[in-house]
Amino acid sequence: MTWEPVIGLEVHAHLKTRTKMFCRCAVGFGAEPNTQTCPVCLAFPGALPVVNRTAVEWTIKLGLALDCKIAEHAVFSRKNYFYFDNPKGYQISQYDLPSCMNGKMILPTAEGNRAIGIVRAHIEEDAAKTVHVGGRTGRIRGADYSLVDFNRGGTPLVEIVTAPDIRSAEEAKRFLQLLRQTIVELGISDAEMEKGTLRVDANVSVRPEGSDELRTRTELKNMNSFNFVARGIDAEIARQIEVWESGGEVRQETYDFDATTGALTPHRAKEEADDYRYFPEPDLVPVEPPVELVERLRAELPELPAARIRRLEAELDLDRAIVLVTGGLDRLWADSVAEGADKIAVANVIANNLVGAGIDPDAVSAKELARLVKARDRIPRFVFDEAIAKLGEPGFSADPYLAQEAVSDEAELEPIVARILEANPGQVAAYRGGKDGLLGFFVGQVMKETGGKANARVVSELVRARLNAP
Amino acid sequence: MAPVIDTLRLTAEEAATLLEGGEVSAGELRAAYLDAIAERDPQLHCFLKTVDESEGDGVPIALKDVISTKGVETTAGSKILSGYVPVFDSTVAARCKDAGLQLLGKTNTDEFAMGSSTENSAFGPSRNPWDPTRVPGGSGGGSAAAVTAGMAPWALGSDTGGSIKQPSALCGNVGLRPTYGSVSRYGIVAFASSLDQVGPVAKTVRDAALLYSIIAGRDRCDSTTAELPEPVRLPEGDSLAGLRIGVPTELNEAEGIEPGVREAVRKAIELAEGLGAEVGECSLPRSVRYGLPCYYLIAPAEASSNLSRYDGVRFGIRAEGESYQELVERTRDEGFGDEPKRRIMLGTYALSAGYYDAFYGQAQKVRTLIIDEHREAFDRFDVLACPTSPTVAFPIGERAADPLAMYASDLLTIPSCLAGLPGLSIPCGLSDRLPVGLQLIGPQFGENLLFRVGHALEEAIGFDTVPLRWRTRSDPVRGQIPARVGSDPTGLTPEETV
Amino acid sequence: MSGLSLTLTQFPMAISREEVLHVAGLAWLALTAEEVDRLTGELDKILDAVGIVAELDLADVPPTSHPLDLVNVWEEDVPRDSLALEDVLASAPEPENGLFRVPTWRQ
To answer: What is the mean pLDDT of residues A252-257?
Structure first.
């Protein structure tokens, strides 16, 4: 029996507005506890919410970027439950009439475009922060007591819910990378999982391949990176398959995934599902976005990542295009190519060295990058690497690095090559016997001998010539 | 020689005139009311707290204890908020301060404004100044009784299903429940968010209009408020020529309306005709039949959510608990009285899974019907008239054990509250020596019209707001205004002249 | 309730003791046994009376959440002063180092 995973994602992004969703307390990290609070976000008697206009506009903008229908009539709702971090005893959210519905995000893949349905995107407020004191891990289990800081409470969040259209952990990861890049490019959120400005929960079920049934799904929470999300999903898929194949039934539960151990820990079993008793928030009036507003926001949309990936795919392969775009570095690539860099080479350099390095793309000079890439065969490898590492620094110039030529003089290099081959007869025989991969070994040895200063390409040619000579 | 200030009779407008003319100082005026409180409040128990000093050199005012006052304890009549001192002013309290009004104190209320008699206050009931064995009405019985008893020239109350209008009717003074959205709820301890409104309680319609003009208008802190479409006009004049008064059959003839109440209201409506109004019948069948059920689904549902913040974590009392849940559950069980608990349970049930559609969802649709029915009535009429309360003040304890009987007190005030419409109650006569209130219901933002009609009728009726037991024969001030039409509109002996 | 027919209800709406306990659980009210009994009787009567709203066929009637027809009420994203910490904690039953202390969650 082959099984097909059925995955949906719930993503919360913290909008980087200046003030909270329902009051004008400043939002920001690092303040002393409870110093960014007011009667509204503390839920003092008589306090009332007032909507943050920017948060509404940014949510609509995101909805447009996700090809959603923007609701002509959206309503805030109360979600009622008791918890430390929820001072009103309810969270203001959107329920049956959210701001954005029925959109999709196109994932470019080698097999074509995969449309992942976006069921809804809506606005809500974040909960406060609780510190659990006394337990070993600082988590709630085993703690003696808890301390609440309401600074974070009330921060605007946009929640994005996908349809269960995702079919693998890898696809989930790609979706998240693309979604994240989209959100960041709209300027509405930093969307960093490690910093908590992006949170992802996954809903996972499996079904026999080819069927269209929807079996019981579980929820995975508390994963701190896209990689962990993918691994958690894989672990849960495996677990569920085992349950079904051993004749059992998957139960609706919530799991935490521990990335270090790979363990899936179920939350305490609840006797019954929460009854949130949603009803329309009487303290807030509906949102009916004027057509001019929606059109203005639509006009402000930049060319979105998915479209740019398809465009780049014509010149690079798809994977490379995806890496560059989701890394936010495709414009740097385009600028570097315009400055004369070889498009494949500079794509590789950017992909291998700059993506995920935390470099601000706007700080990198495309011209200097292009010069370096053009000279990559000419200068020593270690010099090249050093230069790339410093690309993001202010006022960077390639000049000092370009001045250092790698040794290309064959007369100088030949004796070293000869010496290395003589010293390694076993590997020479193996190479001649068909192990082509050992070329790298010899080149590496020569490079080591020359302290990295030799021109690797020239060395490689010399070695090959010698090895192939009778 | 220090002026004699007869607080039983002095209106706020008169007090303001005395202050402006320098005939009386702010301190003297304040002292007069504090004296009256010292003398009468031990029996009537209107005040939960009096304030020794207050900034402001204007007319003193009392505020219902659901109104947050910075630095002054605000309990909402509940044990769960014992000792709670807000660190911020409600918008209405701030506007009163800005107008220079002096805070006298906080008045008693049914707990969380839930009730029709002020017997649900955790701190003991208030008593009706006309007859202290009877209720002053509720939930704002403290404010209404304080005004009638001369312990404050005027006061602010809050009205959700009649909590301003009904106490004013039972205590014989003027109460306005404003158009929903015309007065800010920021800082008002919330009961039912789509129904709560703050409004004035006063001796005269002009006073009520004056106080309304101080507090009304859009507030950035309350998203459900709107600017008034026109400025508040203090009423003058005595003619009602051209006014079309609708008399909704069901509101005037509902089962449970006492004959004496019906009669006093009928006479007042006749007086209005004498002043030039055209009176006609209209019908609000579903508003009356389904008004109470609709209200007692919507209001408790909203309340059940609004009261979730009372958990012992950030303010208020805290019970013992080994776990967070235990702490919260015990705090709430110990801190809330029976009526809030009843309504929390009712409201939670009405919103719960499987029941939402039949209860809360259905009630919201009924609300639409009620709004529509009223709108149709206002197509044909300018103002609707009916009794405010089906009965005069009832004895303390009579209904306390029967929630449904207590809820029935609001039968006549609730429908227009659900429609978000303004209602003015003015005293129109006596029945069994107790005041009867006439309710005038207006269209949205129709306060100026209500003031005009109320003022003209008030002059014509000539009701003496001083309780019978405190009147003296030689009393020269109010109470002797002859009726404009007919010899004795109330059918009372000269001793009980209205 | 006066003015209403008390006897004619198409949908009898009883509430059981079990349901009362369930609702108390949702509302985080630690009711005593006496309270549960009393409330069951009271709520049963009240629900019976309010349940007459079910008589009406309102399939085509839109619900009203707000009696005043406002839309799009919001504010610019400009910070205003927050409360001073001493005000925030002024009424706190158990403040600790600028935070609100509570017993921890236990099942």
So the answer is: 91
Q: Would residue C82 count as lying in a domain?
A: no
Domains of chain C: total: 1
Sorting pLDDT into bands at 50, 70 and 90, what band is A144? confident
Contact yes or no for B224 and A275 at CB 8 A: no
Q: Contacts of residue B90 in chain A, CB cutoff 8 Å?
A: 46
Kindly state whether residue A223 falls inside one of the protein's structural domains: yes
Which of B101-115 are b and which e, b meaning 16 or more Cβ less than 10 Å from the residue's Cβ? bbbbbbbbbbbbbbb
Peptide bond into B139 cis (omega under 30): yes
The alpha carbon of residue B221 is apart from the nearest alpha carbon of chain A, in Å, by 7
d(CA C27, CA C36): 13
Catalytic residue among B163, B168, B182, B184: B163
* A217 and A277, same domain (yes or no): yes
Closest chain A CA to residue B351: A277
- CA-nearest residue to A148 within chain B is B313
Answer yes or no: B126 catalytic. no
Least-confidence region, from A155-169, A248-262, B71-85: A248-262
- CA A272 to chain B, closest CA, distance in angstroms equals 12
Q: What is the mean predicted confidence (pLDDT) over A252-275?
A: 82
For residue B182, indicate whether it is catalytic. Answer: no
Angle of helix A318-326 relative to helix A305-313, nearest 10 degrees, comes to 150
> What amino acid is encoded at B28 in this protein?
E
Complete domains list, chain B, with CATH: 12-470 (3.90.1300.10)
Radius of gyration of chain A (CA): 28
Which CATH number is C51's domain given?
1.10.20.60
Q: Is residue C44 part of a domain?
A: yes
Is residue A207 packed enough to be buried (19+ CB in 10 Å), middle (13-18) or exposed (0-12)? middle
CB count within 10 Å of CB B231 equals 9
* pLDDT tens column, A456-466: 888 888 888 88
A427 and A457 share a domain?
Answer: yes
Nearest Cα of chain A lies from the Cα of C30 at a distance, in angstroms, of: 14
CA distance A82 to A80: 7
Confirm whether C90 is domain-assigned.
no
Identify the domain containing residue A84 by its residue range. 3-296
Which residues are bridge partners to B177 per DSSP? B423
Do A387 and A429 share a domain, yes or no? no
Could you give the number of structural domains in chain A?
3
Segments forming the whole domain that contains residue C9: 1-58
In a domain, A379, yes or no: yes
Which residues of chain B, if any, have pLDDT below 70?
1-3, 473-498
Residue C70 in domain: no
